[in-house]
Specification:
With about 240 residues, the protein is of the alpha/beta class. The protein is built from 7 helices and 11 strands. It has a 5-stranded mixed β-barrel with strand order 5-9-8-6-10, surrounded by 5 helices. Bound molecules: hypoxanthine.
Length: about 240
């Protein structure tokens, strides 16, 4: 019972899937953090694994880059493999230096310049939001671990290169402090097919200044994000 983009067997995925953008990151997470991790899908080298974390079944699979790619994988996971919880673990760029590099950002909502939600919503403006229970689990977990997080609205951009010149100012003014490329798609797919989703992001660059995290800083922040995501995933 494979889907066009996933060649796992029925039941191969846990109810909760952690989703980075990068397939090699999914492999690394499975090898580093999961016990008895088994590779369950390999189509297009978008690897997915299922193992256990502290005795609970957990999967990890990449969603690729951008709303179209992320929408395909999340739709098939939910609709065809019965996945109930999606936790995106990614990076974002800050639209203002008020947000600091390496900060953890939890996406309560996702605004977008993509048209996907208007296509779904009779051309009206759908508020793509995180599931409150998962959002709360992530925020509570971060607090228990003593890790500060910012919770807010993100911008899921279709363009990585060539964002409109005044867009950063508009976003800043509207309290949308970070840009990424998937959550407005993932949150609406979850709503459409009856699953829950949340996104946790590390700030990898400050867009107006060009400041970016070093490779070493990325490792540390990645570990912080993973500790929050894993503990929240099994709550
Ligand atoms: N734009 C979009 N997505 C991103 C960025 C960015 O600047 N940084 C990390 N993910």
């Amino acid at each position: 019972m494979a889907t066009p983009h996933i060649n796992a067997q029925p039941g191969d995925f846990a109810e909760t899937v952690l989703m980075p953008g990068d397939p090699l990151r999914a492999k690394m997470i499975a090898e580093t953090f999961l016990e008895d991790a088994k590779l369950v899908t390999t189509v297009r080298n978008v690897f997915g694994y299922t193992g256990t974390y502290q005795g609970k079944r957990l999967s990890v699979m990449a969603h690729g880059m951008g709303i179209p790619s992320a929408s395909i994988y999340t739709t098939e996971l939910i609709k065809d493999y019965g996945v109930k919880n999606i936790i995106r673990i990614g990076s974002c760029g800050a639209v203002t230096p008020d947000i600091k590099l390496r900060e953890l950002f939890v996406a309560m909502g996702a605004s977008t310049d993509s048209k996907v939600n208007r296509m779904r919503f009779n051309d009206h403006d759908y508020a793509a939001i995180a599931d409150y229970g998962l959002l709360r689990a992530v925020v509570d977990t971060a607090a228990e671990q003593g890790k500060p997080v910012t919770v807010g609205n993100v911008f899921s951009a279709d363009l990585f290169y060539g964002v409109q010149p005044n867009m950063l100012e508009v976003l800043d003014k509207m309290q949308v402090k970070v840009i990424e490329m998937e959550l407005a798609g993932i949150y609406s797919v979850a709503a459409q097919y009856g699953a829950r989703a949340v996104g946790i992001l590390t700030v990898s660059d400050i867009i107006p200044t060009g400041e970016a995290t070093s490779a070493e800083e990325r490792q540390t922040t990645f570990r912080d994000m993973m500790e929050v995501a894993l503990a929240a995933a099994i709550k």
